[in-house]
Every structure is written in C-alpha cells, then in structure tokens.
Amino acid sequence: MEKSGWIPTMCYQCKAECAIIARVEDGVLKEIRGNPNSRGKACVKGMSGVSLQYSPDRLTYPMKRVGERGEGKFERISWDEAVDIITTKLKDLRDRGEAHKLTASFFPHSITDPKWRFLNAYGGFINTALPHCDSAKILAWIKTTGGVPNHHIPPAWFTVPEGGIMMLAGRHAFGGLEDASIPKDILEAKERGAKLVVVDPFFTAEAAKADQWIPIRPGGDTAFFVGMIQHIVANGMYDREFVANWIREGDFKKLQDYLADKTPERMSEICDVPAETIRQLAEECAMAPSVGVDSFKGVMLGNALDFSHAWCIFMAVTGNIDNPGGQPLPDLVPLSPVEPAPTPPSLHDLGWHRTGPDKDKFEKYSFIMEPTWYEAQAIRNGDLKVLMVAEANPALTEMGDYSWQKAVCEKDENGNYKLELLVSFEIMLSETSKHADLVLPDKSYFERWELLYMPWWYNFGHGVALRQPIVEAPGECRHANDVFIEMGKELSPEYFQFDDLVSYYDIELSGLGLSVKKLQEMGGHWSPGSIGFRKYETAGGFGTPSEKVHLYWEDLEEAPWSQAFPRVDLPLEYRAVLDDYPFVLVSYRTIFHSGSGQWTFNNPQLRDSISGFQENPLLMNPVAAKELDVSEGDTITAESPTGSVQIQVKLSERIRPDCVALGHGFGSTVGGVASACKGVSDNRLIPDAGATLDYQDLIGGEAHVSTRVRIVK
Amino acid sequence: MKQVSMMIDLNRCIGCRTCVVACRNHKEIIDHNKAMPDEIPYYLRVETREKGAFPNLSMDSWIVPCQHCREPKCETSCPEGAISKAPETGVVTIDPEKCTGCEAKSESIAVEKRKISPCKGNCPANINVQGYVNLAAQGKFQEALRLIKDENPFPAICGRVCHHPCESACIRDDVDEPVAINAIKRFISDLDLDPETRYVPEIKEKKDEKVAIIGAGPAGLTSAFYLAKEGYQVNVFDRLPVAGGMMAVGIPEYRLPNDILEAEINVIRDMGVEIKTGVTLGEEISLDSLKNNGFGAVFMATGLHFGGRLDVDGEDLPGVFSGLDLLKDIALGKKIEIGEKAIVIGGGNAAIDSALSAKRLGAKEVTLVCLEQRDEMPAWNKEITDALEEGIEIANGLGPLRFMEKDGRLSGIEFQLCTSVFNEKGEFDPQYDDCQLTAMETDSAIIAISLLGERNFAENSGIAITSEGGLWADPLTLQTRIEWLFAGGDSVSGPKTVVEAIASGKEAAISIDRYIRGFDLREDRVKEIDMASDVYKAEYDPAKRAQIPRLKPGERAGNFNEIEKGLTEEMVIQEAKRCLNCGCSCIQSCPYSVIQFDGEAGKSHKCDLCQDRIYAGELPVCAEVCMTDAITFGEYDLVKQWAVCDGRTIVTDLSKGSMLYIK
Question: Which residue of A has its CA nearest to B52?
C-alpha cells in the first residue's frame, strides 16, 4: 500500500526528535514541515531528511567483513546468518560469565526502548552512543532538587515573561537541537520585553541577536555564576521567600560562608568578565521576574559538576526553580511496565570496566550510565568483548586521535581481535560500520515504528509521540529494534513474550489508555498540554531526602577533592598545559550538523555551501593571527597535547583572541558526499578521556569538548 | 503597480537556511539520489554581514530570493521574451516553454552554464555582452541598447574606440575568429544618436544631495550618469572648453567623430547633469568652495593632460610639438603648421594617432621613431596596421639624443641606438649604445611619450600622491584620505583606456552613493568572476566573421573622416548569430545572482514566489517554514505600512527590488 498526503511523525535527524509532518506522494517522501499541532517547526536538518531517505549510500542488505577490520571490505550475507553470528557469540560470552562485557551504543528514544530491555535481560551495559553530554547537569539537579532536567529541558522559553532574563551560557539554542521551535520562542520572548544574554567566547548566532554578549574566558562559567551569587547573597537581593521556605536548613548559612571570599572582583580574575558586568547582571537577575539559564559546553568540561552545581544554586537563590521562565522540573506520566521486567546488571559490581587500572578513582561516580568514551580503553583492558552500535558513530565521536579506530583493530598475542565482535546497525556506511564485522541495514526514521516517551522533552511536554512508517524501506532493511527483539526471544525468551515491537509498545501505552493504533489515529501525539509550575508546592516538597533544595553536597565533602560547594577555578584541562599550548580550542556547533553523525555529514544539502556547512576552517582572531604571522587561508598545524591536524585558517572577529574555534563533528571519510567534502574532526585534538582521568570530574561530569592547542605554521 | 512582496525581518532571521532546503524540496529542483554539494540549484540563499571588531560585533543574516524587480533586467535581456512580470502580482517568471537556455543543449553542465560568459567577465565595465549580442541576433536593438546602457553610458563611443577585451576572450576564437562584438555594439549604440531611438534611463526618486565631479572625461561623466540616475544633483566641471576629456581632445575624429561624442554627452545633460566647461579647479572653484556650496561628495577625475618631456637638448625649439597638445589643438580647431616632414617620437597609440594626424595635416613624410622593437611597442596592432597602411614609416630601437637647430627652429633629430628597453624584471630601463648614432632631417617633431596629470591643486589641497605621481585613492572604493573626496580614472591609475575609465566612474558612483547614504563602502565590492570555459550550444552558425568596412588608405589623406565604418543591420544580425552563448543572458543580467540553470532541460529557472500557492491563498514555502517567522508575505505597500506602523527601520541598501528588509 503506497501512502499519499501529509502524515504526522517524528523527526530523527538529531536527538531533539521534533514533531513533523511529511508529505508522501504515491509512496515517495517529498516534503517535511514542523507539525502545526505540536509547536510547528522543523529545522534545516529536518528538511534535509528527504535527501537522507533517498541517499544513494543507503545500505540494503546485511554484510560481513572479509578483509581486516577497518579495510571496509564486505560480502553480502543473509539476515539469518547475521543474527546467528551475533547470538552464537553472545551465548558464548554469557557462558563464559562475561555477559557484562557486551555493550550496546545507541540513543534510547524512550526510557522503555526494547534495546535497553535486551541489555538488561542479557546482562550487558548501555552507553548512549554519544558522550554523556549532560550527565553533570542531570546529576547536579538530582542532588539539588531530586529532579532530572537533562539537556533537553531548557527553560520553557515560551513561558518567559516581559522583563525576564534568558541566559545562554555556552549554549547553541538556535541549533534546533532541543526543539526547532526554540529560536522562535526566544526571539518572541525578546520581542515581548525579555532580555537575551549570551555568555560565550564565540560570537554565536545567538550572540548576534542578544541584548548583551559576554565573551567569557572558556571554563570561567563557574566563577562567573559564583560571582553573581556572591553579589546577590551579600547584598540581600536573593529570593527571601524561596530561601526561607524551600532551602534545606543550614545550607544557606554554609553558602554564605563559602561565598565570603568569592567577590565579583576575585571571580573576574578567573573568568575574565569585568566585576562591574558580574554585578550588573547579578542585580538584573535578582530584580527580573524570571531568569532562565541554559548551558551545554559549561557542563562538558572537567569541572562540569562544579558549574552545574553553581547553576543550581544560582537558580535557587534567585527563586527560579520551576517557575515560568525559569528551570522547569520534569513531570512523568506512567507508562505500563512490560512484565516481567528484567533486572539490569549492577553498574557498581560489574561496571566501571572502562576505567581499567584507575577503577578506584570512580568510587563516587553516580551517573546511571557508564562513562561512554572509554570504549578504546575498555577494549585494551579486555573489558569490552562485544560492541553493538546503532545510530551512533563512536569511530568519530570518541575523543583521542582515532583512538577508538586503533583500539578496535588491536589484536591479542594469538592474533585475535581484542574486541571479539563489532556490529554496526546503520542506514549508510559510516566510519564505525567501516570497522565493523557485521554491517546491518537499519530502517530510516521514515520507515519504522518507534514510541517516544521522553517525559521531559521540550516539544511535547510530559507525553508520548509516535514515529510511524510512512514509506517502504529499500531492500532488506530491518529496524534494529526488531532485530534486538528477535535476539531477545532467542537469548532471554522470558522477557520477550510479546509478539513484536508494536505489541510491546501497546503494552506500555495501555497505562495511558492508549495503543499504537489509537495514538496513530490521534495524530501520533499525546500530551496533557500543561507543564505545571512550582510543582513542589502541591507535591509538598522536592524529590530530595529532606524534600528541600540541597545547596550543600555533604557526600562530596572529601572525595577525591571537596566538591560540597563548587570549585571556582578554571577546569584543569585549561590550566595544565597553559604555557605550551596558548590557545583554548572552542568546538562550536551549527544548526546544520548533529554530533559526528554520518546522517548529516553525508547529506548533500547539509554540506552544500548554500544550504549547509561544508568544511570547518579554524577560526582565529586577526589580532592573534597577526602575532603569529598567520594569514587568512594559510594552512597551519593545530597541535594539542595528544593530537595534531592540518587545517586552513579563517580570520574572524567572532572569537576571543586567546581561543581558536573549530566546528564540531567533521572528519567523516565514508560516503559519497562526506568523502567529497573537507573538514577536520575536533575529536582528533581533544584527548582520549581515559588517558586524562586527572582532568576529569569523576563524579559524573565529563570533560570532552575542549583542549588547549598551539598553532604551528 | 500591483506587487506582492516578502518582508524579511533581520531581527528574526538566524541564517539557518531551513527555507533554502524546504524550497528545493517543494520545487523538486533537487534529485536526492544524485545530489552533490555545490551542484544543487537553489532559489534563495542566505547572506550574512558581520560588522565591528572583537568584542564589539554585530551580525545580520537575511535571505535573498528573486527580488522580483520593478524593472527586471532579466526580462530586458532575454532574447526569447521568455521572462515576464505578472501584472496582477508583480511576480517575475520564466516561461519554460519559451526559454531555450540561450540555445543550450539539453545536457549542459548546469554549474558551467551558471557562470559568466568570458566576454562579460573580461569587460572592465561588466556589460552583459552575450545578452545584447543575443538580442541583436533577433533584431531587438532597442532592448539591446538598454542592456548595454545599464553598464556603460558611452556605448557608441566604445563601439568605435574600445580595445574590446570581450573579443579577445571570445570562445568563438577557438572555432574560427571571435564574434565582432564591438561592431555589433556600435550598430546598436548608434540608436543613441537619434533622439527618436536613444535611451535615456529613468531617474529614480530625485534626491536633494549634490555631487560635484571634476573632469568631464569618460570617468567623470560615467559617474555623473549613474549618480544622476540614482537621483542626485550632479555638477561636472572641466577646465577645457569642451566636454568629453580625452574622448574630445585626445582621440582624433577619424576614430571618433564629434557628433557621436556629443550625442552621448547630450543624453547625460538631458538627465539633468550640469556640465560646466572652462572651469579650473584651483582657480574658479576649490574643494573648499564646493564643500561650502553644499556638495556632499566630490569625484576627482581630472585625467592626464600634460605630455611627458624627453629632457634632451633642443626640446623647446619651434617645430617641436607635444603630441597631446597637437591632438588637442586639432580637436579644438586650431590651425597648425606641421611642414612636409614630421617625426613622431613614441611607440604607443597616442604616437600612432599623432602620426596619422600629422599626415592629415599635410605632412608628406611621417616617420614614427620609438625605443621599442616592433613586437614590444605598446600601441595596439590594429593601430600599427593603420599607420603602415597610410605609409607611415616606423623606425624601431632608436632613442632621441638631441634636437638639431637651423635658423632658430628644428631641423632634425639625432638618435642613439637603443639596445634594450626593459630590464630583467620587465621594468622600463632603456640601455643605449651611444656610438651608433643616426640623424634624421625633419620639419617638425611630435613627442608622444607619456602622459602626466596636473598635480599642483592636489598638493595644495592635501590630496595624497602616489610614488608614480597619480592621485592616491583606495583601490576598492576610490575614496581618498579626505573622506568626502573620491578620485578615479587616469588621474589615479595612470594612462588606461576609455572603458577602464568608465569602469572607474561606475565604482566611484557606487562609493559616493553609499557614502552619502551612510553605508559601508567596502562591503561586497570584491566580486569573484567565475567565467564559463565550455560551450553548451546545441548547434552553432558556421558563418565567418564579418569584415568591417574601412576607408581605403588613399581615401584617408587630408581629412579626418572616420576610418572604420559600421556594419549593416543584416550583417549585424548574422554576426550576432555566431555567438556560442557560453552563458545565459538572464543569469548574467541579474544583479542578485538568483537565476539557476537546469542542465538536463537546458533552461533557466528561478524563484516564482510560489505563485501557484499565492493563488491558492497559501504562503510562499520559505515564509511558511521559517523557523523564526521572520518572513511576512503580502502586498508591497501593505507590508511596508506594517513596518512603518511598527516603527521598524527599512534596510534600504537591501530593499532595492520588491522585497522589503527591515530591522
């Protein structure tokens, strides 16, 4: 049956998964729009989904490696053979008592994703296919409020009132990466009298629209926020009612003591923002009806948890937790469990294998998932034996100079690969699948069912949304979820007693009185339509043990250094090699690309000079370039302590003179489009995190976006 | 006039390019299965402007779809009449039934056909050469004239004296000979001589601002033409008693008849430009007086009106003339006694013209003597041929040592052998062998070696002078160190051609307009010209290049009649058909570069403002999908009203067509 007309579904060009409608004509996808029933916008990546769907590089049948790993030589095999290879290996692994040495890298579209269920049932671990970009933010909010705002829960910009302040601290909010409606929401809030402040060493698209741009020293965010907090608290400008009623007893006093020497002047020395500016913005924030802060880069540095902590304290003392225009706390609607529910393997007992000899350092690690980017390290330690990757590209996503690619090719003394099996589910060949033993053709997001249950998503509030097949998949493509269910039925049948993916979703939806069919008939989207403000009032408190906001984190008093209150210094990775590497590498994002994903980097429209971002020259401030006698268009070598790349220089006033900027995610050499375009992966310069544990926030924050570099002509 | 529009809010546009992709998908101008970056057509693009220096920066983005111009140049340029502006919407569309892609074959390489044809690319004045040639091939001369005058106010003059780099670049030369472009232009432009058929451009809204131009030569008058067209009040001052500068007093009538010059200057006068002759800067007027009289900007295009000196003995004897003065005196109708024998010293075009003029003044024997060997002479081959045809002897490799005297006047010249003219670096550095001397008898000598400008006023007015002796002006903007003073033409560049002076005058007009309106002078000024190198014409006319009729050498003696004659209408049409159509007329005429070429169909195509959707009550796709709702669609007058009511600023340097850009 070939469909025609506009069909509601969900985009998956990036992790925002915006609600879209797609026009299909006689079974052919033609156009995409934002779904007018669900905030109504789609971005340039979303629009380019049509080119993804009809890419000549689509994989259409399963393949098995015939050469050495990384050579990219494959032969066609059947699905039966492919599944048999995997299940045989997994049985063997489990029989050896090493089930926990399976890891699957994928993005869980829903907290009830059947792939995750498979891992829990089998005894392996998940990592999210990308660095845990927001783990520090999540951890900090859990510790402070018991809530779980991940990076997909920015302030609800559409709720910002006149006079409210919107602060983007190292956050590319116009990238459409939380929702395509965010740029419009921010600009409309601005038009109704809210103020936009951008704190970023790079003059971003957001800075261009901002009322105030603060070109902060990279990593100075903690000092900057603590300076503002000090000014607010010392001058009695804090939200007295919130502090009196909702902050745990004793915490505010401890905060005052901590702040005693954190004056704007002192913080200014660290963050390179004038003390006057710190005071001005602090006062404005204290007076404003609301302050909403969003950050991303700030929660990805070595001191990520410190900054996230400062952010939470700032929101608390200004009374901006869960109020209109402030930081929303998520609400959950209950989906029905699919019984029996498997018990996941213990992360603390069986996990941490990525850390190798430094395992003890992770004693206080408290995020729900393993740190992601130690796959290379884990392979070398013998802790990772089978890796299955879906919708992910660790070959480019992992930091270190091709460290992952080298590790998967490493052999033991017997000449066997240390990583015994590498499986890649992909819709087109990627750097990762090029290294895989099995390459399995996945279905695109226009060809498959998927229930999205992200209760906190910006775009549909606490609700569910349905991705549905609108066109036929080419060749023998199978959705990875279907394959995992098939393997689950063979390896852990007691947990896979449902028929198929749709019936699995039907069970989950039954708690809401819904089914896949019903959801489809409703337009593919269910939500109560409300966010709810100050929910802690009706709930009688916060989700913390004391039911109050915890500013002081006593569990981190002495571990491995005191982080009971934020450390204000620049992250260690910015201080350690200051003299030899004078520049900070700012890795910036654009709306055109999502992470290091092959989906956008091999898309002709997203690499076209007119409609996308083709290559990423190194941006240098002309003042800095002149000092080094570097001119526009020169090819230079950028060296970090662990890697080096040759790259062309583009002079730009948009970057601080002590920084250089590089667009994130480039470097793919696979695929017709990607291989025809230039570009350098910033991850080649950023050290493999496993090799720089001393720089890391081993409690949960993770340094993975930056490094210091030097420029060699 | 009815006109729909889109109002683009720069405060809202974030440069995300979502519209570009949505438009492509909707219009199905992309083959998703084959598309490669930078080869995909697009109906709109995003431009970004960054201003300031760290940390005081601003950055704006906006979209550039087809501007649906009030007077679309593409419409004028289309030889097939395929482009029209809909009366009920003002939308400009290309009719695919009529468009032939300028006779492109159907599997043309689209990227190549989107390039500029070499004739246009090489023209200093950037005239849409292929456009007017194609129009001429169809006998559409009036339309062709308009197209030429969009870029050049002196086409009839250029049709006679231009060194036509367009023809040197013409790809037809690879087949046989270049298209006789200049002769075609001359025929078209002669329409300008007749008040009935001439083209006087419409003056845009009259402005109060006044601009003064010093020098009524090609650079000065060109900027006057374009500034007047923009609505400025323009006064041109010249110290000579006639207008035209070197076109009047440096180019002899046998090349450029006076009535042609006058006709084209009259068009400029009729546009309201006041040309005041016999007015000398530093005497009747000064920069201060101009400033005090309310001129917002001044353009100095004073040219080079002094002949260089040899600095050898006897140079001031009676019978020794400056070539420049000679040509000027002839032009101004003064009587000159040249004698029977004349020697011209110099190897350039001015020397040739001095020699040919001496011949016409009655000299029986005229010898041209120069340092250079024949192949080193700076004169154009065509001019050297003219001279040889008329029996002028050329003596190469000789440098004058002294002028000999008899009875108080010139009797002859002694020359020394010039062993080399240029050094290893290619610089002018003549070496002589003074043992090898040659003496020639003569009644008169004409020195035509170099041209110099008058510098006193510049020094007195504080205008910077370059080490070469020219006025200093920013090479891109022609602005001098005095911000309201601009300088161009030969007085800045040294001796160049008429068409180069025209190009300079145009740039000056752009700068002055921007200066007066307070816009950035430098922005978007550097244009990279990507020229077509391949031809995709379905089939070409094998005819040979037309022979241009000329006076026989015998018919030239003793008169200043025009040597070259024009082609007939029939010949022009035939010649124009020889064009290989390297590019596309409409694409080359579009000031906004928004027209695309469909290689497979062999046709041009572009944004039609989603006309079918407009009729159905829907928004153009770009407006519908805009992430930030930055685009408002509606009638031009209405959306403009909205902008005004909201207190928004109209960004006038962008809002030139029918799209409205606001901040």
Answer: A653
pLDDT digits (tens, 9 = 90+) for B402-446: 999 888 889 999 999 988 888 888 888 888 888 888 889 999 999
Taken as a whole, chain B contains a residue count of: 663
Terminal C-alpha separation, chain B: 25
Using the Cβ of B18 and the Cβ atoms of chain A, whether some distance falls under 8 Å is answered with yes
**Range in A31-35, A556-560, B208-212 the model is least confident about:** A556-560
Residue A501: half-sphere exposure toward Cβ, Cα within 13 Å: 22
- What are the φ/ψ torsions at residue B207 (nearest 5 degrees)? -110, 160
Furthest-apart CA pair in chain B: how many Å?
94
- How many helices (H) does chain B have, and how many strands (E)? 25, 24
DSSP A460: T
Q: Distance between CA B41 and CA B422 in Å, rounded?
A: 50
Question: How confident is the model at residue A372, as a pLDDT?
Answer: 55
Query: Looking at the predicted structure, is the pLDDT value of residue B314 above 90?
Result: no
Given a cut of 70, is residue A454 above it in pLDDT?
no
User: Which residue in chain B is spatially nearest to A204 when comparing CA positions?
Assistant: B59
Report the C-alpha gap between A521 and A516 in whole angstroms: 9
Q: How many other CB atoms are found less than 10 A from the CB of residue A555?
A: 14
Structure tokens at A42: 């789609």
Determine the residue type at B637: D
Note whether A44 contacts B16, CB cutoff 8 Å: yes
Q: Which of the pair, B598 or A620, is modelled with greater confidence?
A: A620
Query: The tokens 């090489």 sit on which residue?
Result: B122
**Which domains does chain A carry?**
63-132+334-446+477-514 (3.40.50.740), 146-329+533-556 (3.40.228.10), 572-712 (2.40.40.20)
Across the interface, whether the CB atoms of B32 and A31 are under 8 A apart is answered: no
Domains contained in chain B, CATH given? 4-66+607-662 (3.30.70.20), 73-197+534-604 (1.10.1060), 210-305+453-517 (3.50.50.60), 307-450 (3.50.50.60)
Q: Which of A605, A607, A654, A678 to mutate to test the interface with B (most CBs of B within 10 A)?
A: A605
Asked if A21 and A6 touch (Cβ cutoff 8 Å), the reply is yes
Distances (CA, A) of B479 to A439, B126, B207, B486, B607: 63, 21, 22, 4, 37
Substitution target in B625, B648, B663 with the highest count of A β-carbons within 10 Å is B625
CB neighbour list of residue A14: distance below 8 Å, 6 or more residues apart: A45, A176, A177, A594, A595, A597, A600
Rounded CA-CA distance B83/A87 in Å is 65
DSSP of B271-315: TT-EEEES--BTTTB-HHHHHHTTEEEEEE-----EE-----BTT
> At residue B660, what are phi and psi to the nearest 5 degrees?
-115, 125
| B26–A31 CB contact, under 8 Å | yes
Tokens of A132: 């845990």
3-state secondary structure B416-427: EEEEEEECCCCC
Rounded to an integer, what is the distance from CA B497 to the centroid of its chain?
10
Structure tokens at B116: 């500029």
B139, with CB counted inside 10 A (0-12, 13-18, 19+), is: middle
- Whole-angstrom Cα distance, residue B76 to residue B136? 12
Q: Is A585 helix (H, G, I), strand (E, B) or coil?
A: strand
Structure tokens at A125: 């671990």
Kindly state the helix (H) or strand (E) to which residue A132 belongs, with its residue range.
none
Q: Are the beta carbons of A585 and A638 closer than 8 angstroms?
A: yes
Q: Does residue B25 sit at the A interface (CB-CB below 8 Å)?
A: yes
Q: How far apart are CA A698 and CA A412, in angstroms?
A: 29
How far is residue A194's CA from residue A210's CA, in Å, rounded to a whole number?
A: 11
B139-189 tens-digit pLDDT: 999 999 999 999 999 999 998 888 899 999 999 999 999 999 999 999 999
